[in-house]
Amino acid sequence: MTGEGPERYRIDARLGTGGMGVVYRATDVHLQRTVAIKMLDALADAPAAAIMREARASSSLNHPSICTVYEVTEIGGRPCIVMEHVDGASLASAIPPGGFPPETAVRYGLQIADALAHAHGHRVIHRDLKSANVMIARDGRVKVLDYGLARRDREGQRDIVTEVVDEHDAGAIAGTLPYMSPDVLAGRAPQPADDLWSFGVLLYELATGDLPFRGETRFQLATAIQRDAPAPMPSRVPPGLQAVILRCLAHDGAVRYRHAEEVRAALETLQAGAVGAAVSPARRWLSPRWAIAAAAAAGAVLFVSAWPVGRGASPQPASNSAPADARTAIAVLPFTNPGNDPDVQYLTDGIAESVVHSLARVPGKLTVTAWTAVQQYRRREVDAATIGRELGVRALLRGSIVRRDGALSVDVELVDAASQTRIWGDVYRVQPGGVLSVQQEIATQVSSALQLRLSGDEQQALRRHYPVDAEAYQLYLKGQHQWYRYSPDGYRRSLEYFQQAIKRDGRYALAHAGVARVLSAMTYEGLLPPSTYVEVQAAASTALSLDDSLGGAHDALAQVQFAYLWNWAAADASYRRALELSPREEVVHRMYGIFLRARRRWDEAVEQMQQALALNPVSAETTKALGATYFWAGRTDLAIEQYLRALALDPTHAQTHDLLADAYAATGSYARALESRRRYLTLEGAYEAAEALGTDTSEAGYRRAMRGLYRRYLARLEQDVQNTREYVSPMEFAFTYIGIGDTERAFAALEQALNQRAPWLSSLTADPAFEPLRSDPRFARLVARIGVPPS
Known about the structure:
Blueprint: E1 9-18, E2 21-28, E3 33-40, H1 48-58, E4 69-75, E5 78-84, E6 88-90, H2 91-94, H3 102-121, E7 124-125, E8 134-137, E9 142-144, E10 151-152, H4 182-185, H5 192-208, H6 218-227, H7 239-248, H8 260-272, H9 291-297, E11 329-332, H10 345-359, E12 367-368, H11 371-374, H12 384-391, E13 395-404, E14 407-416, E15 422-430, H13 435-449, H14 456-463, H15 470-483, H16 488-504, H17 509-524, H18 533-546, H19 551-563, H20 568-581, H21 586-598, H22 602-615, H23 620-632, H24 636-649, H25 654-666, H26 670-683, H27 687-692, H28 699-723, H29 730-740, H30 743-756, H31 777-786
Parallel strand pairs: 11-12, 11-13
Antiparallel strand pairs: 1-2, 2-3, 3-5, 4-5, 6-8, 7-10, 8-9, 13-14, 14-15
């Protein structure tokens, strides 16, 4: 052995043979440790020198879930890789028939995703991730093998490495055929996203015990990978886990995860939420009508990010929503976290969003793209010219945050989108407590670089900040980060951070607005009783007393006036004030559209939805809301069109399938309605309810299936009331009784809801779900008590 003498390693046993060579268990006699040695065969198509070079590059990886490469050397004239010996079994041999339980699949998947994130952060691509290349050590930890055969993805150049061939694939493409991505099969150079496709195949295998794509021959298998959807997963795989797998295996590169840390974050969310349960186990699926309220609240007050997949299905902008003047328009992209540092992650959104709000304070000189519209580029690897063209902006601000020796290094650059040339850039090195000054300095430098010629008042507005201390600001950013999870647990954690920020500085207007929006969303979704709106009003009023220019706080106040106080004129005025202050915020337009929809002002509601979509054409939530508006207005054909567009943007959006079922049923398409309802229930985890729908696609069969569904849900609601302390809205009972046809109990539930001032009563005169009650005199009396003005 070169440089060490032949006695350095003692071969103890042969462990196995693969397409690359033979693996032995050996003893390092110098260090007295057990190692694994892979002796490479002489491969005509893959020179050993190239393999050894990549193994040396991969030896830099140091992660508990990656098998460590100790040395690259020669033994007996043969090239070999000396690596950590893992005492355990391969994942391929450990997966039981039918797959692991969901909790186990997520646990193993999370470790593998973490390993990928680490490797990709060091610009190393595996290229052959599969269950046979993953070991489960005796202590239960996963170890990813064969990173020594991976490809180094160096910035600014491409290594020329002859592809390595596995025994399963005698062709000329790297990897193992069942795990290869469509892009690699098409001959494209491997990218980190291809590892994520392979990870999706592996996660599918962990959850089901099978592979997602099949074929009798290699050609049929390759064709299936490139063309077909994955085989349906059994109902025992929770919808949240299915959604992660399907997104890894999306053929559209814009849909598929682009970064391993995104997959890791998704699996962490599943693990924290008991593998995808968004609410308590007793309520894992929503009332078919109450789901609308929960979906609408997901974006209330907050400027929500959508799952973007493309632009082809986008509706046309409204006539008064002209694109921004590109000469004075800028987009601030989400910052990156190259080191995948969890203690830095909350800053990647926080600093960028703060810069957006600072720049938006000079609307006469600069148009800033809404934060919602740039979220798509978190998952899409698109060049600056394409982003500029899609958003209609002249300049892009992008940045990264890395923590070194306790300090933060914030690297930012402003680029001309068309020419992709750098306009300005700088690196700021600050302590974590100094991020507020950094975002202000960035905003100031951007305005100078764009030669905006700001007046004194405009410069002061640009640099305006609240009298908060550093810790309060960090707490606020952490609250923002948790808010963007859009889950009950995320809401609660977000609320805790905002409240802690207020304790640090009671005059922090943004923190008070944060409390208002979190409580508003939780109340509108039915997680808290309607009386919580009193706290929402107090928090929003406090925020506005400190800073009347906060559009989000006006929006929160409008929610209280609309959904709880039923003060229609005040709500209209608050929405208009919010739009005046935040004219380019998608969610403010959408929520105002929902208000107008409740007033039966259909044309105005549609116009607001279209303006929201002009600001963020890839928003599945707003597209769905436009569809619901058309449906309520009796334009079922247009509603179906919008629902299908929303599902093209996000096929896992359960409530959209539910609403589409209503629309199909209204047109007499009962077979389609039944299938859409079944998909909704499956995505919500209600597998037994989905199976109980049956297969009778006649009108009578569909009506019978729906009555059965409502009775099943009623039993679940009654169980919730008896066994849990969580708030259950009377509106859920009201909608369920209407579905069953029990008019008396429906009115009793509505009376209880009115006494509580339940939010969804605001839509009493507009929502078609109440149609079966409208001929009853009691319904008119309810409407009069709520005071809904005529349209």
